[in-house]
Amino acid sequence: MDTNQYLEMFLEESKEHLQACNEQLLELEKNPDDLAIVNEIFRSAHTLKGMSATMGYEDIADLTHEMENVLDAIRNSKISVSTEILDIVFSAVDYLEEMVMDIEEGGTGKKDVQELVTALNRVETGQSAIVAPVMETAASTLAVEPLKRDTSALHYDDYELTVIGQSQEQGFHAYEISVTLREDCLLKAARVFMVFEILEKSGEIVKTKPSVEHLENEDFDEVFTIVLISKEEASSLEAKVMKVSEVDQVDIHPVMDASLTTGQLPAEPEAVSVATTAKETGKEIAVPQKGRRATNAHNANKTIRVNIDRLDILMNLFEELVIDRGRLKSIASELHNPDLNETVERMIRVSGDLQNIILNMRMIPVETVFNRFPKMVRQLARDLEKKINLEIIGAETELDRTVIDEIGDPLVHLIRNALDHGIESPAERLAKGKREEGTVTLRAYHSGNHVFIELEDDGAGINKERVLQEALARGVVTEEIAAKLTDRQIAELVMASGFSTAEKITDVSGRGVGLDVVKSTIESLGGHITIDSKEGQGSLFQVQLPLTLSIISVMLVNLDKDIYAIPLSSIIETAIIQTSDILNAHNQKVIDFRGSIVPLVNLKGIFEMDGAREKEEFQSVVIVRKGERMAGLVVDSFIGQQEIVLKSLGNYLQNVFAISGATILGNGQVALIVDCNALIK
After folding, report:
1. Which of 73, 209, 274, 329 could cysteine-pair with 78, CB 3.0–4.6 Å?
2. Could you tell me the residue ranges of all domains in the chain?
3. Is 417 a catalytic residue?
4. H or E element that contains 292
């Protein structure tokens, strides 16, 4: 069997099952007597074993089989849940994640699992097992007989059993119809459609194997099975299906009543069926009613999996549409045609709705990043000999996929920093009158066009005096600057490159690498990070990120004959000021903006353009902010707000100062996008 066509599905589902194992193992550690959790882990492991064996990944199948044995021994009360047992099962899941990752990167998924298999065997039999640290070894040569794909047996859920059982009570037949296409069949999806069309005229389809989506994509060999409810005889149905071209064989078997009496049907015989939606086909199943009460029907499965590359293509096409939309709007304003203006306005509204839909399709819950942290915190807490409770709030908050892809590593650094530097040891906490167990809270929430991710701990906080001394010793700040820094600015010195207050280097921290990487990564995403800390009480790291990076709102401004775009997310206000109100402080032009001294940045000077307008009576200024810092960008004039498509300048121009990208305007002109963060910095 050619398994390549199933590889993407295997990888995606394997990751889901392994994540489920991790989450349930953490729950089991808190509730060791809850056998329902053990059953959930067992089901995930069992499914993963079947998938990996079918795909030919023998080492994964072998290891999950041993995991199953341990879990089975727990649920049959042969062994009890303990920290030692959980450590070994966690190690097994770690191995499995590494093997799946290797497959995703083009490897074979092979790994020497014999040592871990032996440890699992010892646990299963009630013996003590000491697991050596996970080490990379030579590829395993263990041979495991791959499991055969079971194409004959269909498994029914409660809903399907209910529909079939009640239809049989009404005198209908329920058939499993297996259709075999010829090996040389060229248009399998077309033949499947023709079979569906014939059978739907004779009854109602309840289930298919494989799913309808796989059938449409021709993701099956030559055989597919349909479960049909009908009053026609099997011989009649067989004759009809055999008339379809390239059908080689039709096997029809009744769904036996015995299969429906396994305790899965509702106990009340008066329960009746109503027209409802089938899980797989999306078709309505009309079963004659009997009585007045209806069974609960499952909701239709309204979720489909779409390859992210397709969404990227869709986004690129829509970005081109946004550019053309701007061009059409510009033309319409020049022609002054009422009908054209009305049509353009409607197109703008419709395309705006389309834009929201497309952007929402790219949004992914931050849960996909957050769900890796509980297990990491558990292990780090043990390594550091600390007691730590991780609370996650707002995991359902959504971010653009491109931001999600980049935010994981910075959050890992922040969490490791909080556990190592923030939370004290149990003895220290008790001495300070705190609870022995420290709390780290990870929360996410929306605010305007931004997502905020906060990491808060109730630890020791930042020793500002020690930070300042270290910053002076390393030359990060001068004595003159240090005397003027606020508490927040001192705390944020820990994000300087190479900065570290660790007294010794450990595996967790102390090498001066971490928070500076966090800061640079977040700023590269158009966000920023702030720190609030109270010594002895804890710290709060707040990360602000844009919802999306591809289509942004900007203020267009004129600089001589060129047009520049300033992101609205950075703008506080635009203002027209008198040149006479500009002051000088420390050789820097500044203005008094609502009680705050704001330095002025002449964009023409920054971009080496001629024609400064300092002698004119009035100046156009855009006030921008980055964290607590502000600046006034001096421009020639304002044009107005507009949504634009952010395009990269490419590798050749990637290091241009204070320019983060470019866009194409409605008149075809290219406008450069100003990087306010770089200017303020």
Report:
1. 73
2. 4-124, 158-285, 308-362, 365-546, 551-680
3. yes
4. none
- CATH superfamily placement of domain 551-680: CheA-289, Domain 4 (2.40.50.180)
158-285 to CATH, choices 3.30.70.1110, 3.40.50.720, 3.30.1490.190, 3.90.550.10: 3.30.70.1110
pLDDT tens digit sequence for 517-540 = 888 888 878 788 888 888 889 999
CA angle (220, 221, 227) in 5-degree steps: 65
Give the span between the Cα atoms of 120 and 69, in whole angstroms. 8
- Cα–Cα dist 213/306, whole Å: 11
Asked if 493 contacts 474 with a C-beta cutoff of 8 angstroms, the reply is no
Catalytic residue at 4?
A: no
- The amino acid sitting at 181 is L
CA distance 61 to 53: 5
Sheet holding 388-393, edge to edge: 388-393, 438-447, 450-457, 538-546, 528-534
Q: Which of 281, 301, 260, 268 is nearest to 163 (CA)?
A: 260
Q: What angle do CA 591, 597, 601 make, to 5 degrees?
A: 55
CATH topology for 4-124? Four Helix Bundle (Hemerythrin (Met), subunit A) (1.20.120)
Write the CATH number of the domain with boundaries 365-546: 3.30.565.10
Question: Do 265 and 161 meet the contact criterion of CB atoms below 8 Å apart?
Answer: yes
Pick the catalytic residue from 68, 97, 319, 424: 68
Q: What is the pLDDT of residues 383-400, one digit of tens each?
A: 889 999 999 999 888 888
For this structure, is 396 an active site residue? no
Candidates 23, 46, 104, 246; catalytic one: 46
The pLDDT assigned to 4 comes to 65
The pLDDT of residue 510 is 44
Ranges of residues in the chain whose predicted pLDDT is under 50: 1, 130-152, 258-301, 505, 510-513
d(CA 135, CA 113): 10
Residue 604's closest CA among 593, 587, 619? 619
Q: Which of 40, 97, 417, 454 is catalytic?
A: 417
